[in-house]
Amino acid sequence: MKNTHIELLAPAGKWEALEKVATAGADAVYLGGKRFNMRLLRSGFNFSDQELGDAVDYLHEQDKRLYITVNNLYYDEEIEELSDYLLFLEELGVDALIIQDSAIIKLHQQLGLTVPLHASVQMGLGSSEAVKFFAGHGISRVILSKNLSLQEIAQIHQETGIDIEYFAHGDLCISHTGQCVMSNIIASESGNRGVCIKPCRWQYTLEGVDGAGNEATYYLAHKDLCLYSHLKALVTAGVSSFKIEGRMREGDFLAFLVKIYRKALDDIIANQEDARPDPEDEKKLQENRVRNFTTANLFGRTRINVVDLSGEREPFFPTRARPLKRLQADDYIESSDIKKDATPIEFTVKVANQDMLTSLKDAGINRFILGYEYPEL
Prior knowledge:
This protein is an alpha/beta fold and 377 residues long. Helices cover 30% and strands 14% of the residues. It folds into 2 domains: 7-175 and 225-299, Aldolase class I (TIM Barrel), CATH 3.20.20; 337-370, no CATH class. The chain has an 8-stranded parallel beta barrel with strand order 1-2-3-4-5-6-7-9, surrounded by 6 helices. A two-stranded parallel sheet has the order 11-12.
């Protein structure tokens, strides 16, 4: 382990949080503007255009970096305004853009921008091939999926050599790297548009499951991530930037986390193999935790133990469970009411074996896909 260029990356949703995490020892801060980012549910958070410029100056004066989250998915009608926003951020001199929508890669090229691009955790990158693909299209850093194991992280580092950022502490989503559509289905508030109402944090009852009972339970409430005790292993695996989640959290709580992780990373940088987690700091993390902790997928695939079924530490969130209306017959559109397109419909089917291909060859299918993962074909 020879990596001495280790970054501690902290979030900020308000100016007071920005100042406190910087003072506590963060090397860099990530935050979002009032538009085009994944944390838009609370109006009192995020930074105005003026504050973004002030934040750049404030951090650069301290030789610290500022990364801006531009990590929604976007619609065609937003591209013009999004392009103007990207040009604005380039002019400010921010140190990187954290992106999810690959359209920004093309806009970045078309606009002649030079600000580095970091692939957001929302991209769900979890393989060397995926990382190589985006590295070949201008991505300089990847924020790997939170659903990877330590071995998988190390393999990606060995096979790509790209700068790797990884979440070390904070909220986790029950869905793979946050790719969830529940909020959008329930309330037309998309998690990929920054307005998730967090239905995973509600209580549910199960119907038709033996032994489930009628009591409402937090079946989808994931515990929080805490990798404090495994920072050295992650550095060895190739992680060079450790990210704390929490742009909607208050500055004092974030500063507390930054101080503890700063101390641990400084020990790793200075003492390399002899560095050890501080039991007192581990105790402080436990005493001040929001939810109970988990190491997620770092040492194996997750099971039910990553969910806190009791919900006893589940904090207040300003949404409440909503009844779902069962669809009725009149909710469906009769086919005669649908405008017919003159373009002929083609059917494509992916098959897994020769028997399936043979059985479907006369079923009116226009095109077959033969998956390369099925060697018997």
